[in-house]
Amino acid sequence: MLLKKLNPVFNYLNSKQWLTIFVFLLLWGITSVSYWKKYDWNPSSMVNFGHEFALQNKSETPENAILFKGEAGDLGAGYDGQIFYYFSRPLSNFNLNWPKGFDESYRAPRIGYPMLVGIFGLFGKTSAIFGMYFWNITLILISYFYLRKLLDDEVKPYAILYLLSPFALGSYYVLVSDSVMVSILIIAYYYFVKEKYLIFVLLSSLAILTKEPALFLLFPLGLAALFRKDRKKMIVVGSVLVIPICWHLYLSYRFPNWRPGRLTDFIMPFEGLISYMESIWRQLAVGTNIKELARLLSRFPLVVLFFLGVFLPFTGKLNKGWEFRISFLFVLFMIGTAGYYHFWSVYENVSRMFTLSIPILLLLFNEDRTIRKQEYVLVTILILFLFLIKVLFISKQMNYQVGF
C-alpha cells in the first residue's frame, strides 16, 4: 500500500512536534506572502474587500485597504472574508448598524466568527484584520493538539493531515470561517468526551453560529446518545441549539425579510457536479482555450475525492464509529447538493466544504482501523500539492486599487 510507504514520514513528524509546527507555519506563511506580494504587500488583500461593497460601507473600511474591482465571470467584487469583517464592526462599535449590501438571511446567522474578530476590532479596523489572521492560525493550532488527545497512539501520527489540510489552508487563504468553525468544533468535542458539558455547550453553540455544518457532527452525537438511551447527553447535545435559536429569533425581529430556510435555496442535488462536468465537455469540444480548461480541471480532484468519500463510510466494520460515518456522509451530502453557480464554479467555494471531512475521518479511523482510508488520504495530499502550485505559480493578480 502506497500510504504505508508514507508512514515513516508521519511517524517522524509525530515524534518531532516542533518540526510539524514549523512545516505548518512555513506552508501557511508561504501562502500568505505569495498573496501579499501581488498587492503591495498589504495583508488586507486576503480579506478580499470588493470595491462596490466598500463604497456602501465606506466608514468601516480601513484606509489603504486593497479593494478589488471584480473580474469577468465573478459572482461579485471581492470575496466572503469582507462579509465577516463588516459584520464584526457593529460588535466592535457596540451598535447594531449592520453592514449594507449583503444578504442578511444567509450571512447574519453566521455571527460567531465576526464576534471573535470583533474582540480585536475594539482596537481599530486594522486590528480587526489582524484578528482574522489570529483566529484562523491560533485556533487550528490549538485544535490540532486537542485532536491529538482524542486519538490513540496508533492514529496520532495521522493528525498532521488535519493541521496541513489543503481545505483548512484554502479557508485561511481567503480568511473565511470554515477552518475556524471546524477548530472550535474539535475543541468542543474534546470537552464532550471529557464530560465537561458547559464548555461543550458554549463552544458548540459558537461553532454553529460560526457556520451551520457544525451540526453535521453534533447531530450524530445526539443520535448516538439517543441510541444508547443516555438522557443526560441527549439534553446536553440538545442544549447547543438554545443560543443559536435565540440569535435567529433576534434576526427575525431585526430583519423583516429574514427567513430561516434561506440555506435550502442552495440545495440542488448533483446540479453542481453535473454542470461542472458539462462545462468540461463544452471546453473540450471548443478546444481553443488551454488556460480555461486548466482552470476547470483544477476542481476535478475534488470530484474524485467526493466519490471516494461516498464510498469510505461503508468500509470496515459498520457497527464501529457509526456516528462519525453519519457525520462524514452529511459533509458529502452538503457537497453533492451544492449548486454550480455558487459553489462548483469556483475552486475556493467547493474545496473548503471538505474541511470538516478530515477530522471526522481521523475520529472514524480511531474507532475502526479497518476502514479504507488510503485513497481519500492520498488524493487529499495530492490536492495540497496542487493547491500550493496554484497559489505560488498560477494565481494571477486581480484588478484592484489601494483605498478610495
From TrEMBL:
GO MF terms held by the record: glycosyltransferase activity
Signal sequence, renumbered to the chain: none
InterPro entries, sorted: AZOBR_p60025-like (IPR058226), EpsG-like (IPR049458)
Taxonomy, superkingdom: Bacteria
Record key words, sorted: Glycosyltransferase, Membrane, Transferase, Transmembrane, Transmembrane helix
Protein name listed in UniProt: Dolichyl-phosphate-mannose-protein mannosyltransferase
Transmembrane segments: 18-36, 159-192, 198-227, 234-253, 296-314, 326-343, 377-395
